[in-house]
Description:
This protein has about 240 residues and is of the alpha/beta class. It is about 45% helix and about 10% strand. It is built from ten helices and six strands; from the N terminus they run H-H-H-E-E-H-H-E-H-E-H-H-E-E-H-H.
Amino acid sequence: MCIPKTKMTADAPHFQIIRDIRNTLGYLKQSGCTGFDCSRASLETLNQLGLPAGPGVAPDRETLADIRTDLGDCRRCGLCESRTHIVFGEGSPNAQVMFVGEGPGFDEDKCGQPFVGAAGQLLTKIIAAMGLDRETVYIGNIVKCRPPNNRNPEPEEIRHCLPFLKRQVAAIHPRVICALGSVAARALLATEAPISRLRGRFYEVMGIPVMPTFHPAFLLRNPEKKREVWEDVQQIMKMLG
Ligand code: SF4
């Protein structure tokens, strides 16, 4: 079942107003105007809202919309051949927590949304147990097109797709990333170690703490592992304060 998209997108009217205010302040600053608050602190505050820069303002970092545009109708790897939809990722551009899975499954490929099948429903419950919701976090995958028969993505497919996820991480700059399952953890941490050894402690990628834990699909098959996942997400909650 596809989950209704949040209305809090960067295209929402109030975000457009904030963009306009920020761009106007940037233009005034570049014009030498001192009668308004054009301070770096004020502009940075507006940038922190995760909005794209406009004319007159040098962009501090690219936006999710920029990255989606660049991805286009991607045919950079063979997974494009059998996909129905590219599953770019979804959630808040200001998310404090980013969840990263390995790739879309059957339901996600049909919807174009990440984690909407049975594993996705479990992830939604885990997010709720953390006191968060899907609209305030960001959910993405290592590869954005469904591997045939839900096989693991090949290294070559990851090599082509992972740079886009890393750009999403840079655009969102979450306080913490939760890597779901071995494929996500290994790709993000550039290791071959098994998830059972990786989980339970923080690593660092792009200056951001990464907590690997078991994939929700694995939990559906091994419910006795829920306790370990709960321990891992509690560490995330503790880090968030
Ligand atoms: S998996 Fe990623 S790199 Fe490959 S076709 Fe899809 S979007 Fe492009």
